[in-house]
Amino acid sequence: MTSIPPIDLGQQYRTIASELETAVLKVMASGRYIGGDGVTQFEQQFSDYVGTTHCVSCNSGTDALYLALRALEIGAGDEVVTTPFSFFATVEVISAVGATPVFVDIDPKTFNLDVAAVEAALSDRTKAILPVHLFGRPVEMSALMEISASRNIAIVEDCAQATGATWNDRQVGSFGRIGCFSFFPTKNLGGFGDGGAMTTNDPELARRLRVLKEHGSTRRYVHEEIGINSRLDAIQAAILQVKLGYLDKWNAQRREIARRYAELLRPIPHVVLPSESDNGGESVWNQYTIRLSTPLDRDRVRESLQTLGVSTMVYYPIPLHRQPVYRELGYDEGSFPAAETVCREVLSLPMFPELTPDQQQAIAYRLKEAIGD
Ligand SMILES: *Cc1c(COP(=O)(O)O)cnc(C)c1O
Questions:
Q1: Which residues contact 230 (CB under 8 A, 6 or more apart)?
Q2: Ligand 1: centre distance to CA 22 (Å)
Q3: Residue among 59, 86, 87 to mutate when testing ligand 1 (max atoms within 8 A of CB)
Q4: CATH class of the domain comprising 247-371
Q5: pLDDT in tens, 217-272
Q6: Domain boundaries, the chain
Q7: Taking the complete model, does pTM exceed 0.85, yes or no?
Q8: CATH second-level architecture of 9-105+112-244?
Q9: Cα three-residue angle 165-109-368, rounded to 5 degrees
Q10: Residue 182 Cα: closest atom of ligand 1
Q11: Ligand 1 midpoint to CA 345 (Å)
């Protein structure tokens, strides 16, 4: 019985190996490894792709979020409204700039921030809303954009898992004041190391982001504020330039895989499938995440699947408001019931563009077996 990994990055590399190797060797021979034309070209290509006038590259998705909040002058005394169901970095950066995270429960059908509940969480200290397009599925941006406009509150989009996803035919990362992307290897557009980018239509914000990512420096060796060092390496930029050309094709393959999963898994009782994109949203399926509802025990099913050769992941086992570091915020168990339930039930199945129909059949078959159906 062949085992199936949750993701296979080596396989994707082999499909475009010579193109990638040519691009990387060219950087090595150039003698310039930080900055340079390749980085500028990638920024241009990426802003064209997202549909914004500016793109500022940086070292990671985490840095992109941190720099975005800094550029918007968010700090001590300010509140940022976000989801309790995301990767830790989403909320970590809010604390890192000195602001306070305010959580809003999720819609368990989309796994995303429940936009209808956002209004009630706003206060006169709310400086930003930080929606996360989780697992590749775009948040309902129309409603958020209305709140943002009427209350004059900035939106910073966490697009780390959703490069290429669209809402009403517009790319995520082009709605908020700043869109934040990660090029971590497992993301839809992933480098061979760390990388990130920020997109915006505001030239002044773009300038601020560049200053902040270069040690707060406007001119070399002149520092006007405290920034950080956050660069996209030339080698990563070269790799990302090549891979950006394949992104739409890979995202289409992910959509096809999601469609096949839905067909194969629909008959299995107590397995809740991720809802198809609707309301104008087009997911790019960074993850295919099912819920195993009562009477199923997620962890037990996961173990059985592992024994049967299917590796799965749990994103995420603990909601952000229940993380030990946020104990002092005082969110008890039961504060956000949807997020808490989902954390106990979610299971992400293998998902990568090269996953074959045969592998998917085997996964469905073994899932049935693991459930004891
Ligand atoms: C990956 C991820 C980040 C952080 O990106 P890094 O490049 O790993 O720093 C932030 N938010 C979400 C939702 C992510 O999935």
A1: 58, 59, 60, 63, 67, 196, 213
A2: 28
A3: 87
A4: alpha beta
A5: 988 889 989 999 999 999 999 999 999 999 999 999 999 999 999 999 999 999 99
A6: 9-105+112-244, 247-371
A7: yes
A8: 3-Layer(aba) Sandwich (3.40)
A9: 100
A10: 7
A11: 22
